[in-house]
Structures are given as C-alpha cells and as structure tokens.
Amino acid sequence: MRIISGKFKGRRFYPPADNWPTRPTTDYAKEGLFNILQNQLDFEDIKVLDLSGGTGNHSYEFISRGCTDVTYVDKFPACVNFVKKTAETLHVTSELQIVRADVFKYIQSCVTRYDYIFAGPPYALPTIDQIPTLIFDKGLLNPGGWLVLEHNPNHSFKNHPFYSQERHYGKTIFSIFEQPPVDDDQI
C-alpha cells in the first residue's frame, strides 16, 4: 500500500495480510480515481466518509492531500487497530475519526452529511447493491457531493437514479453517484 500524493507521498505501509478480510484498492486504480477527484474536489475543505475502510488506504490519501475531516468505518478489529496505529505513526489522529462498526448500522444511525463518501466493501458482500440507495435515502451527502462505490464487473449501478459515471481499472470498477447541487433559482 502506497500513498500516491501529498505530504505523505511515497510512504508505504504493510498491513498484515494473513487472514485479513480486506482487498486493498490497487495503487493503479486508486491513482486513476484520485486523478478524477483532484479536478472535482477541494481536498482541504471537504468532509470525507470512508466506508468498509479496511487498511485505511483512502483515508490516508485524503489526509495526505490536505483533508482534515475524515471518518473511517470498518467492523473488523484487526483493521481498526492497524488504522489506529498508522494514524499515530503519521500523527494524523486529529484529522481521522476511527469508528469500529458495521457499515449498514453506521449508515442507519449517521446524522452527519459528507461531501465525499467512498465505499469499498468486499466484492462478494450480498448487500453491496443496497449501499447507494441507503446513503441517498438517509441523506448523507451534501448537495453536489459524490459517492464512489468500488465493485467488480458482477454489479452494475447504471440504473440508479443518482448514478453519474463509472471508471474501469482492470476488474476494479468505481461507480460514481452525485447528490444534485442546490439550484440557485430555488433558493
């Protein structure tokens, strides 16, 4: 796992791989996604939610690029402990809120709105298709906010009402959903 850009650029981390329930996003796919995001988001001014955060790969990348408000959620104790230790090593504990919880329970109880949500659940998760609808039904995105869901070719979200686009990086697909911005004429 490598941080691609920002103040921690080039920094590598080696999470224990044995029996971990994670599938870290490849550097190739993450770099492609962040090339898109850097033209869409002001990293220093956004609130980020990293669902099924695993190794914390996306959380560290956002913090490295200047984001100061990142919430990481994962239910697996080994993942959460690894992220806590890494946050301490990077001295970013004030920028990273770490929550050990089931993602679906977190979504249901969450009262915070975010500018960007990344969801990287296990590809085989039987309820992966519910994630976008749950997030939009709960109103977790600010107007103009983005949800990016990482999945494999076994899933398609093109018919979702908030679907915007998708990007392919090998067998990794990022489906991008957008909360419509507020129409100035209606204010």
Descriptive overview:
With 187 residues, this protein is an alpha/beta fold. The protein has a single domain, classed as 3-Layer(aba) Sandwich (Rossmann fold). It has helices at 27-37, 57-64, 77-90, 103-109, 131-138; strands spanning 48-51, 70-74, 96-100, 114-119, 141-151, 163-169, 172-178. The chain is globular and about 40 Å long.
Key terms:
187 residues; Rossmann fold; 7-stranded mixed beta sheet; 7 strands; 26% helix
User: SS-based structural class?
Assistant: alpha/beta
- Give the end-to-end Cα distance, rounded to a whole number of Å: 45 Å
| CATH architecture label | 3-Layer(aba) Sandwich
Indicate the low-confidence ranges by residue numbers: none
What summary fits the major beta sheet?
A: 7 strands, mixed
Beta-strand content? 15-25%
Number of helices: 5
Output the strand order for the largest sheet.
Answer: 3-2-1-4-5-7-6
